[in-house]
Amino acid sequence: MSALTKIHLMRHGEVHNPAGVLYGRLPGYHLSELGQAMAGRVADVVADRAVAAVVSSPLERARETAAPIAAAHDLDVGIDDRLIEATNVFEGMSFGVGDGSLRHVRHWRHLRNPFRPSWGEPYTELAARMRAAVEDARDAARGHEALLVSHQLPIWTLRCFVEQRRLWHDPRRRECSLASLTTVTYDGDVIVSVAYSEPAADLLPSIGKPFSAGA
């Protein structure tokens, strides 16, 4: 058995969100038709890989993204609450100036500390739970590969932690597009590389930028 184990952290596909709100952990947000196509594309790309486990955030959009990938490997989708989206006080609102939530003075207090951040789950706690989920997946898929479907901020925070970058950042500069794969490779228990790829890059719509209303 190879000592190398690969953990692919996949961001879910595009979500049907006509109101353009920050949906966060809210229920009822499902993949759009394009999002389903993105999930299918990744399923095709990893079909010949030695994927031994497919694990998802409990949110609908993540589970729907994981489903065709698990089916391609005759696996069930495992659910891990540690892969869920970060909490955010702006959940359910449009975010921005103009007609967004930031035009209301009462919301400004939530922006007082971008280093924690003051509007949601602390980056250190987010990195810790994601690291634990990845390490458990590594142990379950020793010598093979596992694919974990999560969300933009949790994936990017983990990558920053692994690459020893600061955790606070400009959301517009995250390298974590829809249906992208951030791959962490272990030799035994030691991380030896982190790679990034976009199997569905040609399907990305105009909203498929590093930061969008939903993650």
Q: How would you sum up this structure, described in words?
A:
It is a single chain. By secondary structure, the protein is of the alpha/beta class. It has one domain: Rossmann fold. The protein is built from 4 helices and 6 strands. The longest helix has 18 residues, at 123-140. The chain is globular and about 45 Å long.
User: What is the tally of helical segments?
Assistant: 4
Roughly what percent helix? 25-40%
Q: Overall mean pLDDT score?
A: 88
Proper CATH architecture: 3-Layer(aba) Sandwich
Distance between the termini: 36 Å
Question: β content, as a range?
Answer: 15-25%
The succession of helices and strands, N to C, reads EHEHEHEHEE
Instruction: Tell me the structural class.
Output: alpha/beta
Organism: Haloactinopolyspora alba
GO molecular function: phosphatase activity
GO cellular component, one term: cytoplasm
Protein name: Broad specificity phosphatase PhoE
What are its keywords?
single chain; 215 residues; alpha/beta; Rossmann fold; 6 strands; 26% helix; 18% strand
Topology readout:
Elements: E1 4-11, H1 33-45, E2 51-56, H2 60-72, E3 77-79, H3 123-140, E4 145-150, H4 152-162, E5 181-187, E6 190-197
Helix pairs in contact: 1-2, 3-4
Briefly say what this structure is.
This protein is of the alpha/beta class and 215 residues long. The protein contains 4 helices and 6 strands; from the N terminus they run βαβαβαβαββ.
